[in-house]
Design brief:
By secondary structure, the chain is α/β, with parallel strands linked by helices. Helix content is 39%, strand content 16%. It contains ten helices and nine strands. α5 runs parallel beside α10, α7 runs parallel beside α8 (194-200) and α8 packs across α9 (216-227). This is Phosphatase phospho1.
């Protein structure tokens, strides 16, 4: 599902993508939601249903189980709202908000879901910063169960069945470039996981990938540089805090 805000100015100089779990927030929302379960853990029979590459389907079963145990929309929202932001991330958002209006177009690409993400962003007061949100759709049915669906289907061998972020990033950049009539000066991608490596592969040599230091995205970039020099084209700036991202962005917007 792509969440739309008002029409975006065609004058933005830069496009910046953010992942959600363990990038914007310092936890994985799908793991945290288990706190709503009886005894704060899932039964073994349910955990045993997970299959590689089919995490979205597994989470559909988890959410159904939670509803059967009496977990409500309010319970889920409360849990999501309590997830801490990653270090320096709210400071980074404040930096982006205070830049001139023509600087940054901000997009979120996540394999979480609309309800978890919207609940957290609104509680943190940063929802309006994001021009688009691409994630798995999730809505409550008449029985009060949060029903999760896959974002799309694709043919990428690296990514889970329900979402290839490179497809999302490529399609969005191509569409926006056509709408604007010109490319962005630079594209940035801030992430942490293995599924953030795939979209970062589509970045060019003027663009910047910001992998969370020592997380899977960072390790995959490092391994690719060693095994296939030149395959990964973007400049790589690892981050521990959002302040690290700000430092590099300050230099680039001043050029």
């Amino acid at each position: 599902m792509a969440s739309h805000s008002a029409s975006i100015s065609p004058n933005k100089r830069f496009l910046i993508f953010f992942d959600f779990d363990e990038t914007i927030v310092d936890e994985t929302s799908d793991d945290i939601v288990v706190e709503a379960a009886p005894g704060q853990h899932l039964p073994g029979w349910l955990k045993d249903t997970y299959r590689s590459g089919r995490y979205n389907e597994y989470m559909q079963r988890v959410l159904a189980y939670l509803a059967e145990q009496g977990v409500t929309e309010s319970d889920l929202r409360s849990i999501m709202e309590k997830i801490p932001a990653s270090p320096g991330m709210l400071t980074l958002f404040q930096f982006l908000r205070t830049r001139p209006a023509h600087d940054f177009e901000v997009v979120l690409v996540s394999d979480a879901n609309t309800f978890f993400i919207e609940a957290w962003l609104r509680r943190a007061g940063v929802r309006q910063l994001f021009h688009r949100i691409f994630t798995n759709p999730a809505t409550f049915n008449k029985n009060g169960r949060l029903v999760l669906r896959p974002f799309h289907s694709h043919e990428c061998q690296r990514c889970p069945d329900n979402m290839c972020k490179q497809v999302v990033v490529r399609d969005y950049v191509a569409r926006r470039t056509q709408e604007r009539g010109r490319p962005y000066q630079r594209i940035f991608y801030v992430g942490d996981g293995a599924n953030d490596f795939c979209p970062a592969l589509s970045l060019g040599p003027r663009d910047v990938a910001f992998p969370r230091r020592d997380f899977p995205m960072h390790r995959l970039i490092t391994e690719t540089h060693e095994a296939m020099p030149g395959e990964f084209k973007a400049v790589t700036v690892p981050w521990v805090s959002g302040e690290d991202v700000i430092m590099r962005l300050r230099k680039l917007v001043a050029e």
